[in-house]
Records
---
Amino acid sequence: MNLIQPSNNSGMRVFFIVWFGELISMVGTRMSQFALMVWAWQITHEATPLTLIGVFSTLPAIPLGMFAGALVDRWDRKRVMIWGDLIAGLSTVAILLLYASDDLQIWHLYVASAVAGVAGTFQSLAYSTSITGMIPKAQYARASGMISLSEYASVVAAPLLAGILVGIIGLAGILLIDTLTFLVAVCALLVVHIPRPAPSGQDDKTGSFWKDAFFGFRYILQRPSFIGLMIAYAGFVLAESLGYPLVAPMILARTGDNASILGNVQAVMGLGGVIGGLILVAWGGPKRRVHGLFWGLMLTGLLGDALMGLGQTLVVWLIAGFCLEVFIPIMLGSDQAIWRAKVPPDIQGRVFAARGLIFNVVEPLGVISGGLLVDKLLEPAMMPDGNLAPIFGGLVGTGAGAGMGLLIFICGILSAAAGISGYLFRSAREVETILPDHDAIV
């Protein structure tokens, strides 16, 4: 079989084939997730089972992070992606068979989510690290924009499609579609060639798998420029994980549980992400990637989070919601382009895994802390007779939702500060000149 080979002229064509297959698979997965959430709610009428499905799907990424990186660097990345899609697809088949036989229970969803989470950890890491070998360096940011575009497009399209189709073909039909979309992703991978990275000479060649698993951390710690980027981005992740999950409950609290208003805001947020992805695909991002990263952090914080926290009307929330997402693809694309250009392809699995593991630890800490701060301190303190109402009431108002609004506003300021901090340290703001590109290292 003649596989489509990446080259300077056809690299984006190869990437597009893989990207399109993953897009179709992603839409199918999110359709089934939506339909299963509805089924779980109808069975239990409790919120906890719904949240636990998400928890079981993300938990594997934390303990597997380091080891997945070491294995992805050792294994053929195309095969890892194929097996990741197949295993995730088999978990959907298992749920479909259980549902068809009327034996499906909530705990089955937890197990299937954990299995899909394990497969997804390896698949997404192999996908991310394969891009470097598929496309020219000048297209790194554009490829990241396409990935962001597919993620946002699936977030917008999947619930709409599932909401329409579930009444026509039922949950079983949705699950069958999801299974078929996994096969589309596998077929896309089968027709292309993804080259294995050549040895760069930067691997320490310890021969020990356990030492190999920690190689990514050592690599980052030996480079102050990467540490600077990590600190700035980790500050943003922490601030966003504190405030972002509170956007939906804040709007509901301030509108008397008006789901229509919340739906409009969330739709505009998804639209913002799609437009941001399209802009990056067409533009390719700034020549100096650090500007795309640090300005993205600042604008997301100030025009997105801070404005969202201050807002008390639908118009303000719509503007803030759009700004909260539109800069994200440019920011992520610029950041990924820097790391892909600087880190040799043969060690990207371990380095990217170490980087991702840090953020996977920071994020849940922020989510938990944000919930506790709001419930125990800020919401009571921002009631009309609360301790903080005289100080911040003129800024974010008082009453239900005001405490959440205050925290979202503060998180916006912190996100902007994370972007500013990147410019304060030479090692971070000049990372593109301090660290040589991996293809310039002899």
---
Amino acid sequence: MITRYTRPEMEKIWSEENKFRKWLQVEIAVCETLADLGEIPSEAVTAIKEKADFSLDRIQEIEEITRHDLIAFTTAVAETVGDHSRFIHFGLTSTDVVDTAQAIQIREASDLIEEELLNLISTVKSQALRYQHLPMIGRTHGIHAEPITLGLKLVVWYSELNRNLERFRQARKNLQVGKISGPVGTFSYLPPQVEESVCKQLGLSFAQVSTQTLQRDRHAEYLCALAILGSTYDKIATEIRHLQRTEVREAAEAFAKGQKGSSAMPHKQNPITCEQISGLSRILRGNALVGLENIPLWHERDISHSSVERVILPDSTTLAHYLTIKLSQVLQNLQVNKNEMEKNLELTGGLIFSGALLLALTRKGVLREQAYEWVQRNATRVWNQSGNFQQLILEDPDIKTHLSPDEINAAFNIQDRLKYVDAIFERVFGPS
């Protein structure tokens, strides 16, 4: 497990101790159900619930001999129970316990992720409303395009994060499933009502049909949901990294007192957290691919998926949890440079209003291709030689025959370009 990025609450979920406790929880739930059905004595269940325990050292010691973790577990537990231990793992196969218990672990991990994701969404909403009307340049292909607001950039992220939340909730729901269907899914030893009762007791749904395992499309969907979530984080982090570049300097990560940016260059203030988010999100995408590779298993079961899930499920949930917290911190403390935003809006000498001029000319009856040529020839002069685009347009003999000075000046009104910002916000957040 990626321990460096693991918060204590997530580390506990994926600990060996918790894994075996979940296994024991499943085993006891089965015993309770079997006692209710009259399959095993009720006093046996009482004894098992009172006495059943294990030590990690003893499980490991037995596994050195058996080379089978579930058998090592049941043997270690049996030593603490005594005669009634014969009813532990009664009619079960290993994966009945392992897959069902793993679903509980994933549920616990998902609870932590969802809590932090809701906090992140709340942070983004707050910042979007804060900067709803702060103008900045919008860029396409990395090139200045037309004005937007910082709030619009944030509200796009807010909307995407909510889609991630919906996707994540659906994926976790499809994975909160247990199975107690036996060696090949035929309920050869225990009837279906045992599975239904046990899963209900554990707060899980039950698989409508399974083999010896839960089908791994469920796990792949979950890992893909985390990968998409991580890719959204990467997208946001990459945007902040670009805005922090020396040539842009419109927004940046907070730089803490005493923090150092470079061992060689004392002036450096680098976007290290956003770079970390971008880098670690690649692991989430890689793990999703492994999850997809786990879907095709041989016949009713093989264990090619089992070993890798011991890595990718703890790692992906751990990273998703960690990255959610880190991105929320970045956005809560985002440094916004309004002066640089204003300076960059003026950087091209008014070229960002070329689209408004094109539309104004076509409204006056000029063919679009002709209007495009007139506007572009002036824009090219400014692009190549600098100058004031608005002044060139006012002096252009073709354009001024169709547009008055007031009409030309109106095309350079930044607020006109942003007049529907509130309408967009109302679409996303509802009436204010």
